[in-house]
Amino acid sequence: MDSPCILVCSIDLASGYCFGCGRTRDEIAGWMGYTDAERRALMAVLPARVATLERRPRRETRRARMAREAGER
Questions:
Q1: Cα distances (Å, whole numbers) of residue 31 to 7, 15, 49, 52
Q2: Which residues is 28 bridged to in the sheet?
Q3: Does the model's pTM come out above 0.90?
Q4: How confident is the model at residue 59 (pLDDT cuts 50, 70, 90)?
Q5: Which of 22, 24, 57, 63 stands 20 to 30 A from 10 (CA)?
Q6: Domain count along the chain
Q7: How far apart are CA 50 and CA 52, in angstroms?
């Protein structure tokens, strides 16, 4: 079974779930040692976990801030 990882590896501090796949750090670390049944069970709950995560807006980059400020003048 493939990994649910989508290369968005950032953990939500409030829930402990990865913003990309919904797994916890322990689940990510233990993935290779899980049986197929354990992986299927975890895969079944991941979409609901990800749906509960509140994504923080990306921080404004310097370039975007400078463009915004130039437009305000």
A1: 15, 19, 17, 22
A2: none
A3: no
A4: low
A5: 63
A6: 1
A7: 5
